[in-house]
Design brief:
Elements (H helix, E strand, L loop, with lengths): L2 H7 L5 H17 L4 H12 L4 E3 H8 L3 H13 L4 E4 L6 E4 L4 H7 L1 H19 L4 H35 L3
Antiparallel strand pairs: 1-3, 2-3
Helix pairs in contact: 2-3, 3-5, 4-5, 7-8
């Protein structure tokens, strides 16, 4: 029996399968605009059994420096995609991705959308509603307002759907 088959029968993917997933998913995140190292760190955390790894574990798995891990985790924390926790009884930090990380990351965009809406409102007032630029900004504002309303409803529907699929946490 190969290592991959042994791992699969024990309910654990082999290291090579994990590595392939991490690099493939990270490349999709990079294509969507995420910086490469945060994408790799996020994919590694997402694919770990515990959803949490130390900087040393991330560095070893991804073959990167502690500085690269630190910068990537800072970015992911700012995006509300991972949390930094202290490992009990040690001075080591653990970086954790939660099962609802997409919900949290998307939900935290609410503040960003509100700031964009305010900027568009100011722009429409400054440029004038009757100018081509003012109309373009007004349409952008209307889009952001629409997305904001839809996002709130979608997040509510997701909570109900998630509970049906996975139960409450």
């Amino acid at each position: 029996m190969t290592e991959e088959e042994t791992s699969a029968t024990q309910g654990r993917p082999d290291a090579e399968a994990v590595s392939r997933f991490v690099e493939k998913f990270a490349s999709h995140l990079v294509e969507a605009g995420m910086p490469r190292m945060p994408a790799r760190i996020f994919a590694a955390l997402l694919s770990s059994d515990s959803g949490a790894l130390t900087a040393a574990e991330l560095g070893e798995q991804l073959r990167v420096s502690p500085a690269a891990v630190s910068g990537a985790v800072r970015y992911l924390s700012q995006q509300h995609m991972v949390n930094r926790e202290r490992e009990p009884g040690t001075r080591r930090d653990i970086f954790r991705v939660h099962s609802n990380q997409w919900y949290e990351a998307l939900g935290n965009r609410d503040g960003v959308l509100k700031r964009w809406e305010e900027a568009m409102r100011d722009g429409v007032l400054s440029l004038g509603e009757d100018t081509p630029a003012g109309r373009r900004l007004a349409e952008t504002l209307a889009f952001f307002e629409f997305v904001q309303g839809e996002l709130a409803g979608m997040m509510d529907r997701w909570r109900v759907h998630r509970e049906m699929l996975f139960g409450s946490e």
